[in-house]
Amino acid sequence: MPAIDLSTTPLRELNQSLHALAEGNNETEWEVLNPDGRHAVAVGIDAPVSVDIRGPVGYYCGGMNKQATVTVHGSAGPGVAENMMSGKVVIKGDVSQYAGATGRGGMLVVEGNAASRCGISMKGIDIVVKGSIGHMSAFMAQTGNLVVLGDAGDALGDSIYEARLFVRGNVQSLGADCVEKEMRDEHLELLEDLLQRSGITGVKPSEFRRYGSARKLYNFNIDNADAY
Amino acid sequence: MSYHNPPTTPRKSATFDDYTLSEIRRAATTGIYDIRGAGAKRKLPHFDDLLFLGASMSRYPLEGYREKCSTEVVLGTRFAKKPIHLKIPITIAGMSFGALSGNAKEALGRGANIAGTSTTTGDGGMTPEERGHSKTLVYQYLPSRYGMNPDDLRKADAIEIVVGQGAKPGGGGMLLGQKISDRVAEMRTLPKGIDQRSACRHPDWTGPDDLEIKILELREITDWEKPIYIKVGGARPYYDVALAVKAGADVVVVDGMQGGTAATQEVFIEHVGQPTLACIRPAVQALQDLGMHRKVQLIVSGGIRNGADVAKALALGADAVAIGSAALVALGDNDPALESEYQALGTTAGAYDDWHEGRDPAGITTQDPKLATRLDAELAGRRLANYLKVMTLEAQTIARACGHNHVHNLEPEDLCALTIEAAAMARVPLAGTSWIPGQGL
């Protein structure tokens, strides 16, 4: 199992080594030591490997990930797993702003809390946050699922498109064009699957409420101008 | 002697002119601001207000058809492992598949290939056709991130982070429902037929300090190979360029207010941003003050029409220019041959700018398959190549006349201005004087 110590090895060398991995290689388990809040750790991987990062990371950890499972044993800075395509990113601690921004696939699991704009502009990613999320989360969220076991801050789902939001706790307020929606069987099944895949037990899908788009801002109407 | 009541000539208001009145009526009737394509149409100080001095007694010219005048440009020499080499200093600006038909994008690629220059994607991502038809392709990284993915990022020859554009500095993109076809909707991960509102700010960074880290991430993902451009609208060019350099750009693109757009509010196009002519010297000054002129390359766009404009932009310190609107005209946009069809749309050839409606009779700004097939991509590409070559020849002609063996050797000292405004903006003397307004005594 290769272990790369970022206190002695340049970041460039780590990312280059991860990019050089082809499918079917033998080095499938990587460990990164002493990340010390560095930015852009383990970005742009495209191989079915696991990378365990022992400590906190800065901006954009796991950015544009494909296939890999990246686990941060610590907290992560802004934009963790931004534009993720597939695979899984797990953060054992808390995350800063824009977690999972524009993500198109794969799963982001945050075991702590997420700050503002979690899931901004998401395009297909599944995001599960065990704690709470900050204001303006799921802003302009296009598709994908955001599951929050705790509370959501102000203006959840502002200008949302077709993403599905599931919140178990309190929602401080909903943003423009975001409304509470009926939880049907298909949503309970989806939620069950999301909870299972993110390793959450002892929580029932029926404890959540579902939010999504009222679709009133999809085509411009001057009488809705105060909503913009 | 009898006095009748001699009538005065009916007098229209200069303030409330016909266009203004029609706009008030339009707003009152429809209840929505006017949306259109293209750039600022109002009269602005521009390159036409500058003249070249030419060589005479104190400088000698180069022989027109014998002595070489080079035009090649290298972009991205600061950090990128693989800088871009272009044969001419004229690039094709970012225009999206979505705004333009697939045929139009193919034609741009074909034309640029023949002329030896680059094309640029737009809001909506990279299509395989576009990659296939463009030898050198710049991939835009936009706030919406429609279609963004690491595979296309690695297929690109350069990455252009779009902070703003000249037609709407501070504004986001817009594509109205009628152009969101199945394919466009799929590329943008949106329901078909809805109005697509692109964000004006990037979702995961704010300000130049964050941008520096974002650039680090993009370089790490692409193994430091690709030149990274930062494109800004003509707002505060001195500070914007200085901050782009600080954030780690290889190339800065400054787009003045004549730069076109696929669709935005008329009020935005005509009232926000600075003319291209006013942006160049502050941008160059920022590079010079940082000791980065020619190390970080500057591309200028917005209203470039001919080789004289190219030569003037380069003389003021740009490394290259980009064209968008002019390239569309070369493909066949607003062609008088289609006048009856423009009339049917309530406009006239040369004025058609409802590009967001998708009914372009030239088949360029549309997603309607029937209209799109009207454009012959091969022929239109050839036309664009011809136009690019003519512009290059014109710029070379001027450079030789000024005694330069490379278009980059053109300098402000080769120019004078016809108006006080242009003299102040371009920081060159008013013709017949040694006066550069705004430079103090």
Automatic annotation (TrEMBL), chain B:
Organism whose genome encodes this protein: Hyphomicrobium sulfonivorans
Protein name: Glutamate synthase [NADPH] large chain
EC number: 1.4.1.13
Enzyme class: oxidoreductase
CDD domains listed in its UniProt record: GltS_FMN (cd02808)
Keyword Oxidoreductase recorded: yes
Keyword terms of this UniProt record: Oxidoreductase
One function term, GO molecular function aspect: glutamate synthase (NADPH) activity
Gene Ontology BP, a term: glutamate biosynthetic process
Glutamate synthase domain mapped to chain residues: 75-332, 356-405
Family: Belongs to the glutamate synthase family.
SUPFAM superfamilies given in the database record: FMN-linked oxidoreductases
